[in-house]
Write a structure and sequence with these properties.
Layout: H1 11-36, H2 44-55, H3 59-84, H4 91-112, H5 121-146, H6 156-181, H7 197-224, H8 230-249
Helix pairs in contact: 1-5, 1-7, 2-3, 3-4, 3-5, 4-5, 4-8, 6-7
Length: 251
Amino acid sequence: MFRHHGPGRSPQENRVVASYLALVGGFVNSAGFVVIGTFTSHVTGNVGRLSNDLAGAQFGAAATALTMLVAFFSGALVASMVIESNFFGRNPAGYGVALLTEAVLLLLFMGAATLTPAAHPRLMDLEAAILCASMGMQNSLVTRLSGAVVRTTHLTGVLTDLGIEAGRWFRWWRVSLSERVRVKLAFGENPPERPSVPKAELLVTITVSFVAGAIAGAGLGVRLRHVAMVLPAVAVAALGVYALLQDREAE
């Protein structure tokens, strides 16, 4: 699962990793919002928040938003350095270490809640930065693994690509139907581009997994608060151990 990256990976390998980590991404994003009131698996909203705070001269709040952006970037940077470095040997080991580091960050998020008896604003900023760093790591490692084919911490690009694929399927279907009934239903001189079944399956898999993770994260976040994050931490750690075992089998 972690021995190949980029074009060398099969569609099935990408779907398995995508479904697993999209479930984690949706869970962390949703549970994090329930617990600390902030979405942490993507940066778009935080850029808007930063701009709005600066425009309103709310420099303290702007600094918090900037910290979250830096944390996400730092997580992505660290994951990339771990994977690209020769220190850990072959690729599976690098991915394993990056995944285990992400799991540690999720556990740190849980531990941070014990620092003060009440939800202090600065503590919540720290917790948000920790989750941003963990999601930055996940986005970086799965992007590197899949050759920029898979994203598992947000759905904006995924739904855009899914819309494009749906348009291709619709036009392909109209042309096929036109040929069968001998009635012109599709217009334009350019022949339709043949839709990609594996790509459509991948995009649907990511969407369904992310939404399922988000629903589970919201439900458990309400009931368990910070403790809910133990589930994605264990899931990511298990995947990291699997990657390390793959590295050993390759020796």
